[in-house]
Recover the amino acids of this structure.
């Protein structure tokens, strides 16, 4: 494993750890956007679909693989949340965000970092399905 790969993984771990601290603000944002009539029904449906996927036992990477088995779930959630936030737009996101703006910026950037844990073929498949919707 090269130095660049180790740094990237360390950076991804730090991003995930920091995101965990923002969960209350993120939940407020998520629920606010899901209830807001100005947000696309398709984006809301994708979020609900991703949550259902995470809760079902059928996965692209089975959960019995330990951490690796949960990473595809996290990546799918990160992609649909990222899509929801981007398509809602900055004004609407700031309206529903309860934390500071720097934490929100870090949250949005951190969503993509989660993908570094996912094997490339699985990452391409998931990203293609979310972007195609």
């Amino acid at each position: 494993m090269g130095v660049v790969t180790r740094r990237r993984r360390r950076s991804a771990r730090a991003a995930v750890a920091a995101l965990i601290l923002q969960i209350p603000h993120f939940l407020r944002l998520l629920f606010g956007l899901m209830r807001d009539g100005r947000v696309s029904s398709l984006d809301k449906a994708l979020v609900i679909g991703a949550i259902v996927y995470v809760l079902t036992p059928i996965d692209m990477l089975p959960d019995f693989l330990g951490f690796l088995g949960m990473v595809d779930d996290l990546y799918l959630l990160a992609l649909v949340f990222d899509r929801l936030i981007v398509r809602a737009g900055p004004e609407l996101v700031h309206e529903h965000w309860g934390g500071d703006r720097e934490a929100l910026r870090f949250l949005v950037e951190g969503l993509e970092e989660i993908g570094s844990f996912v094997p490339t073929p699985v990452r391409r498949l998931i990203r293609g399905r979310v972007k195609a919707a």
